[in-house]
Amino acid sequence: MTMRELEVKFLNAMSELQSTFEKQHQTWQASYNALQHELEQSKARETALRAKNDMLLRKLNTANTLPEQHSLVRQIKVLGAHLDALAKDAAAFNHHLNNQQKNSDNFSGNTP
Fold it and tell me: Is the separation of the CB atoms in 86 and 49 below 8 Å?
């Protein structure tokens, strides 16, 4: 095989590799964008739940005495548990996005 034939094969292989990389990068970018959108929606839901929780806490604080089994107290406890779960989900989601972005940057040769 001549040097020219080897060079053509090499250039074709490099072109195919570049094309594959670009397609994968587009797929990752679309996935990243979708996850970012989901994160924003989760943050909006969290904000709404926090506002509702604050309103319920204000109601609780303005009440004179509330027995432990009062429905408002139970609702606040349930809401607090939901907020804790949302916070954990958001932290895990952020961690996943950061890792995905780092992996994408590492693969593309970019450095932060």
Answer: yes
Could you tell me the residue range of the domain that residue 40 belongs to?
Answer: 14-56+70-104
Q: Is residue 109 part of a domain?
A: no
Closest CA to 39 of 101, 84, 100, 91: 91
Taking the complete model, does pTM exceed 0.90, yes or no? Answer: no
CB atoms within 10 A of CB 108: 13
Q: What is the reported pLDDT for 60? A: 79
- Cβ-Cβ contacts under 8 Å for 91 (sequence gap 6 or more): none
Contact 76/60 with Cβ under 8 angstroms?
yes
The per-residue pLDDT for 71 is 77
The answer to whether residues 97 and 29 touch, using CB atoms and an 8 Å cutoff, is no
- Residue in the structure block whose two tokens are 């990389």: 21
- When pLDDT is cut at 50, 70 and 90, the band that residue 70 belongs to is confident
